[in-house]
């Protein structure tokens, strides 16, 4: 074979074989095996391209032989794939990443004329940082929000809250509602990257003698997070005695009917231009979605013009509470069941993390915010939301007791390893409701992409902090 003269044709032939292997990998190896195969194949492609650029025919043949020896591992069982290819992949990923870091350190010298001295020192400092220092830097520059930004977003959200509550009291004085408050990550110092969303809690007041909250396990749905609210004592208190009887469907209070009511009563009825002029900002309802959401922009923002200001989204969240149980009207979680209410585990998870950190001065919340920022800023990891990450840390806290600041790098790397295991299994069970799989909403492609990123970060976790 005259590789030197027909190099391009040989590369295309190899590419066809590799594409065929990838297209059929999932059928043979499953999701986890296909992810590993994709990583291994990428490493092999890079080796082939590197070998194709070599000048010496003997070196080319040697590199090609080594590449095909590594590729031969693909035909092994999934166990051998995990033990064999993973080592090969990690070796090449580590080598490639170290080369990139070396190039980054050398780049100021190569571009001496074009680069300023300040840029040189910053890049050299970046190369010299340890993972612990890099995580702290990432937290302060990317994850954590400034107090001024948080205060500004909270102030705007509270103004909207006051306006909506005043409107409902004037237009629907008989509607039994509690005091509306802010909630969610913006209030609990768990929001990262930018203060761009807030949650307005709208508590519904139910008569305890007329309504009963049914746990999800006791309903026909048998889903731990899908609760129902049954109308009781109809023989003594017929329909009409409670304000919320008008939203009954099949003897149960319908979360979807309540959301539709607020959509018509608030989103489609409030004079938003008038409120916009009062608050000196542009307030618009986001219609057409399953949630009740408002978009808020500064008053001097020009339509269609680019601006550094991120819009603030405020979501109205109708809820029911009884003891430590909080049920929310979120059809996006309970669809297609119109009567189901979503059991929110967020208060339990947030409270448990705070308790653990308070007991040992730990950095669990710190770690969670870094993980949230990493997933939000990486397109491949964006489907991984805050709830699975919080439960990951809660599960890890059972076996690991040292969550001090000095162990931040160790815990971060351990979180990556644990996430790979959960993605391979296709399941990350809720800390408080073990029957709930928090990864069930991910597609196979999303699992593959996230698995690829986390596998690459095993040996070089800094790639997630770029």
TrEMBL record:
GO cellular component, one term: mitochondrial outer membrane
Top-rank lineage group of the source organism: Eukaryota
Keywords: Membrane, Mitochondrion, Mitochondrion outer membrane, Nucleotide-binding, Phosphoprotein, Transmembrane, Transmembrane helix
Domain Mab-21-like HhH/H2TH-like: 364-450
Record Pfam families: Mab-21_C, MID51-like_C
GO terms assigned for molecular function: nucleotide binding
InterPro entries per UniProt: Mab-21_HhH/H2TH-like, MAB21L/cGLR, MID49/MID51, MID51-like_C
GO biological process: mitochondrion organization; positive regulation of mitochondrial fission
Subcellular location, record wording: Mitochondrion outer membrane
Mitochondrial dynamics protein MID51-like C-terminal domain location: 149-348
Bilayer topology annotation: Single-pass membrane protein
Transmembrane segments: 27-44
PANTHER family: MITOCHONDRIAL DYNAMICS PROTEIN MID49, MITOCHONDRIAL DYNAMICS PROTEINS 49/51 FAMILY MEMBER
Stated name of the protein: Mitochondrial elongation factor 1
Lineage, top ranks: Eukaryota, Metazoa, Chordata, Craniata, Vertebrata
The gene coding this protein: LOC102193621
């Amino acid at each position: 074979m005259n590789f030197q003269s027909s190099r391009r044709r040989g590369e295309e032939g190899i590419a066809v074989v590799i594409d065929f292997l990838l297209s059929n990998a999932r059928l043979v190896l499953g999701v986890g095996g296909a992810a590993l195969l994709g990583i291994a194949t990428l490493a092999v492609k890079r080796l082939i391209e590197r070998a194709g650029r070599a000048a010496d025919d003997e070196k080319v043949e040697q590199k090609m032989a080594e590449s095909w020896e590594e590729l031969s591992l693909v035909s092994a069982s999934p166990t051998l794939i995990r033990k064999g290819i993973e080592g090969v992949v990690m070796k090449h990923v580590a080598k490639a990443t170290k080369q990139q870091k070396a190039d980054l350190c050398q780049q100021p010298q190569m571009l001496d004329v074009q680069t300023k001295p300040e840029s040189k020192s910053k890049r050299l400092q970046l190369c010299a940082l340890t993972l612990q220092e890099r995580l702290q830097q990432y937290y302060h520059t990317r994850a954590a929000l400034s107090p001024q930004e948080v205060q500004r977003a909270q102030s705007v959200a509270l103004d909207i809250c006051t306006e909506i509550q005043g409107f409902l009291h004037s237009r629907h004085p008989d509607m039994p509602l509690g005091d509306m408050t802010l909630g969610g990550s913006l209030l609990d110092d768990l929001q990262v990257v930018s203060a761009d969303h807030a949650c307005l809690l709208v508590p519904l007041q139910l008569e305890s003698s007329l309504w009963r909250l049914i746990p999800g396990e006791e309903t026909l749905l048998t889903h731990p997070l899908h609760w129902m609210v049954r109308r009781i004592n109809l023989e003594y208190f017929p329909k009409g005695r409670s304000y919320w009887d008008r939203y009954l469907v099949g003897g149960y209070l319908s979360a979807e009917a309540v959301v539709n009511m607020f959509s018509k009563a608030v989103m489609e009825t409030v004079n938003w231009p008038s409120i916009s002029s009062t608050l000196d900002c542009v307030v618009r309802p986001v219609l057409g979605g399953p949630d009740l959401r408002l978009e808020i922009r500064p008053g001097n923002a020009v339509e269609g013009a680019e601006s550094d200001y991120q819009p603030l989204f405020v979501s109205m969240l109708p809820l029911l509470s009884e003891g430590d149980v909080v049920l929310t009207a979120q059809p996006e979680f309970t669809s297609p069941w119109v009567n189901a209410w979503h059991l929110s585990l967020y208060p339990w998870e947030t409270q448990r993390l705070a308790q653990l950190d308070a007991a040992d001065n730990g950095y669990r919340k710190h770690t969670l915010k870094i993980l949230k920022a990493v997933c939000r800023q990486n397109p491949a990891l964006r489907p991984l939301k805050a709830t699975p990450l919080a439960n990951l840390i809660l599960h890890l806290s059972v076996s690991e007791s040292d969550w001090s600041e000095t162990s931040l790098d160790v815990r971060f790397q351990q979180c990556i390893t644990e996430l790979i295991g959960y993605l391979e299994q296709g399941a990350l069970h809720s800390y408080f409701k073990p029957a709930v799989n928090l990864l069930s909403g991910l597609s196979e492609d999303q699992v593959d992409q996230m698995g690829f990123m986390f596998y690459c970060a095993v040996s070089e976790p800094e790639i997630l902090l770029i």
